[in-house]
Amino acid sequence: MAQEPGTFHIAETTVNAWTFEGQPGALGGTTVTLVEGGSFCVSTCNGDITPGGAQGLYHADTRLVSRLELKVDEAPIESLRTINPEPYHAIFLGRTGPRPGQAESTMLVIRDRYVGGGLREDLTLRNMSDEAAGCTIALHLGSDLADLFEVKGGRVMHVADVEMTSDISGLLVVSATRGRGARIMSNPMPTATMGLLSFRVVVPARGDWTVALQVNPIVDGEETPAWFSTHHPVEHAEPARRRADWERLAPVVTTSNRTVAQVLAKSKEDLGSLRLFEEDKPGEPPSVAAGAPWFMTLFGRDSLLTSWMALPMDQSLALGTLRRLARVQGRAEEPLSEEEPGKIMHELRFGVQDGVSAHDGHVYFGSVDSTPLFVMLLGELRRWGLYEEAVEELLPHADAALDWITRSADPFLYYRRKTDHGLLNQGWKDSVDGVNFADGTLARPPIALAEVQGYVYAAYIARSHFAREAGDPVLQEQWIERAMRLRDAFDEMFWLPDRGYYAMGLDRAGRPIDGLGSNMGHCLWTGIVNEERAASVAEHLLSPEMFTGFGIRTLASSMGAYNPMSYHNGSVWPHDSALVTAGLMRYGFEEEARQVAFGLLDAAKAFNWRLPELYCGFGRDEFPEPVPFPTSCAPQAWASAAPIQLMRSLLRLDPCVPQNKVWMSPVGLTSMKIAGLQLAGARVTIDVDGGEVAVTGLPEHVTVVGAPRPPLTAVLEEIH
């Protein structure tokens, strides 16, 4: 295929990357990951970036630096400790070998690193000796300008025109074909040669020597300064100011339960680090990236579910995510990207472009659930009584999304990829073997997933609420009728009477996919489950085959494809279990919901207060601590938001501000205070003390209902 000058065709690495059927290589427990917006850095514990694996400094889905190794007097640095005060900031403490004539090291090495739009590092050598030390400092540097998908898939392509040149400030790396590069500078000026910055220095007795390093990215031929510039104090950098605002404006949670307090604090920190800001829209609220290190970008499904679960912490994430997804909503038919009018995207990337998408960045639309989740989240944001004008502005996008759903659903919403370049499975269990029958046989598309029908049902209900608020009873009734038809058809086709649970989905022949999985827990969450079936569903979810003690397995241990060390066939995903918890609580299974919630919190404690993307599905009776999954992302957005959703479930907090009601009836919480929670345009305080709950700060017209919301209230209110 002919290429235009200055471009590089990477269909194998960008489009085909969606079909990557393996898992990225494990980074190992000895690496350190720093994240900020769309940038991240993976290094060893002494701060080095070693070549040959996945380590590196990344920005705009490009590895700007693939090697950064520090040597003093030709020897590597011995790691002492890594301090990680902020998600974008680490201090690597190490020491050199003993100086000549000394038995022990007297030279401390401090690498104070900030990541964001590039990198800043203040490198200090501190001499603990009474004698001045003459040192040769060498920074070995390399850059392959690899696309993120190449690194993730373990198939980095050699780019022939990557050039590294030296100048007075340091090193310049560029590739004309990729339009990417980096400038690596230092102050004081180094001696710069190919792949090397070196300094010959004297470190005073009991004194310091410091050099400031900065890596600026070059994207599409344009160089931009790293966000933490060496020319300004770090506290003046935009990420630092945003973090301070995040800390100041977020609700304050106090509780006597140390585990709950620590896990929520870690969740807040991680969500803050995953926020995405658009440089050309400085006043716009942020969206949220899916997770580090491989998913530091906007995802439809992940960002929408994360924003939903994070609502008690920050509603601006939901608004920012909805607005950004609306801007890249499908407009045309494009089989390679799977774009269709009204469809909400799956994943946005900023690697080297191949011309597949007309949108800013490479957009892939292969997701069946992002579109109904978009409508659900818009409806939920309105239920919280916030951003009324913004929600109205987004309603046409919700209608376009619903048009796509209703064009595709009859009555069920199926998925099937448009070409062999797309994802085979397009629900949240999107691995190639993620949807299977009880005997382990893989289901073949088109597939209608159980949880997706629940999302569509909830989207229809949300649209009926908007119609009622607009005073349009005819439209309101139309959407209610759609919802009820879907609910009845779902119960008829998905319910397995001989098993007592709902099928995972329907395959291309319309046969129920009879695998027992967590999917039906999402159906409880959305309210599509017939109340007569709910007890049996809850019983199966809490059975030893499904509940590990640390969460709900994605697939029951009694199934043919079960593997507790798999990605989707027996592992535990915290966000999945958190939504199951919400569903159990919705249908009144308080004790079951409490068990799952506190099992997840126990798992978080074992993972140093941070829930990972997933962990292995071994039972707690077999191993007393959860077993890590080697390639799990951390921080990961919906795992970070899961504890916030658990808190909401345990509070049984369910606002419907347009109806001037807030349901709240805590379960499993004896002492908790939340100050500054945004609700109904106000900042309210919730105080739980024993069996009593007090809410202050609500507008006078909003009433607190001290009871759980009945599971089908939304529908019954519309019908009667």
From TrEMBL:
Any one biological process term the GO annotation gives: carbohydrate metabolic process
Cleavable signal peptide: none
Domain Putative glycogen debranching enzyme N-terminal: from-to ranges: 34-213
Ranges for domain Mannosylglycerate hydrolase MGH1-like glycoside hydrolase: 445-602
Descriptive protein name: Amylo-alpha-1,6-glucosidase
Organism this protein belongs to: Planomonospora parontospora
